[in-house]
Amino acid sequence: MGRVQEEGSGLVHGFQLSTVTASRPTETSTTHETTDLDLAMKLHYLKAVYIYSAETARDLTVMHVKAPLFAVFEQIPWITGRFRRHDSGRPYIKCNDCGTRFVESQCDLTVEEWLRVPDRSVDESLVYHQPIGPELAFSPLIYIQMTRFKCGGLALGLGWAHVMGDPSSLSHFFNLWSRVFAGEKIDCPKASNGEKGFQNPNLKGKNPDSIKRVDPVGDLWVAPNNKKMATYSFNLTIKEIRSHFPANEDVFEILCGIIWKCIANVRKGESETVTITIIRSDSDGLKPRSVSNSQVISSVHVDFSVAEANLEEIVKSIGEATDERFGIDEIGESDDGVSDFIVYGAKLTFVDMTQVDFYEAKIKEKSPKSVYCNVHGIGDDGAVVVLPAAKEEERFVTVTLPEEEMEKVKWELKKCGLITALINGE
Fold first, then answer.
1. 369 close to 52: Cβ distance less than 8 angstroms
2. Which has the closest alpha carbon to 379: 135, 213, 196?
3. How far apart are CA 260 and CA 244, in angstroms?
4. Angle CA(278)–CA(47)–CA(333) in degrees, nearest 5?
5. What CATH fold (topology level) applies to the domain 2-181?
6. 3-30, pLDDT tens digit by residue?
7. d(CA 46, CA 158)
8. Helices (H) and strands (E) in the chain, counts
9. Architecture per CATH, 212-424
10. Which end of the chain is more exposed for a tag (fewer CB within 10 A), N or C?
11. Dihedrals φ, ψ of 286, to 5°?
12. What are the structural domain ranges in the chain?
């Protein structure tokens, strides 16, 4: 094990790196072909953090955490592989058992002290992140960080290359880990190796609004940004959300409408956002599932001023979002997956993770006290991620926007009552 850094300051420190791979070698020459939807996400990464109490995790050692990974990696060998390119330039994964990076660190706070911070984006410091590249053959696809709190509690942070799979895939992977930890035997369905998981919605020939081509990035898979981005997160109850529009049953769509209107108030004029992207879990692909990108990517375009519109009109338009996966797939197919794109933040993007079963990852039959998940590599238009909270009646929201807009948007959120209690408590 090599010590990579020992920070003299900061609440999280003492980083050490090692490598974990499968318990048995993968058959020689095994490869995993990426789909066009996978490759559309290749400049994006997921950061997820699971925090467990001292009562639950105090006795867990590094080997307790590592050991279940051997069995999971044996079931899903491509996530410990490395990217290569075909002669055409199209990326694929060589399942060569190079493994994932495992990071150990310590935190000077207790779990209770850490969770007392209202803005949960602080959890991103519990995720070790490195992008894929510039040498594809040496870049791990996931990083797992184990942080021990002063009280004995534990945070397990996952840095996950989105090209491998969507948030439900990340959750599925970590739930498999928790099942092996509990002594279960697992049998994971194999990936379809390029099979499409969606139908043509009869929009052939229409360029999808939800994807943006960017200048070639080569073998360093990092999304370009023209603006400095800031992140802010907050909790609120389903009751608080419904109070704005009790006639609509879809809490996510109501919340999207409220926040879209708040952002539109800040971007009034030529920069006002009239086209957004909606990303939600594919209910047809949740169980049983393999690790893949099967999320529904939809677009909403309106011909009215969102800042001036009433919430009912905005929410209605969100409910009529158009599935654009087939168009994204066609673009990728046309150049054999060589071009580079961004999805999150290409247009203002709303991400519904409320159906992802993060809290099923139990240790000693106890769910995590908190789960955080966000997207890294968000484009300049920004993104809003909505998560389930530890309490069923709550939702957890993370907003990533250009830094120059963030304080104005927070003020709009305060005016409409979404973060009043939070700001008063700061």
1. yes
2. 213
3. 14
4. 50
5. Chloramphenicol Acetyltransferase (3.30.559)
6. 333 333 478 999 999 999 998 899 988 9
7. 8
8. 11, 19
9. 2-Layer Sandwich (3.30)
10. C
11. -75, -50
12. 2-181, 212-424
